[in-house]
Please model this.
Amino acid sequence: MEELLEMITWSQLGIHDKPVGLLNVDGYYDPLLALFDKGATEGFINQDCMQIFVSAPTASELLTKMEQYTRLHQEVAPATSWEISELGYGKGAPADS
Model:
């Protein structure tokens, strides 16, 4: 679950521009998809961001949807902009214990 949400977040931030696919066999992820829909309806999730992930009950249908995906951003952020050392974090900070 954490990895799924991380990939969605990375797309929102422009770190990658690929779709996030969810294979929803036998409706297993229906409650999660309903939660996302509720969040969008209530204004907690931007409607554009709802297009980042695609779901389907079969692998072939999911692949078709992923091939038809229209990316959210025109370009992705350069990798160096996401490196902690480049942002100055950790300089002079005590080591984690």
User: Anything to note?
Assistant: The chain has a mean pLDDT of 81.
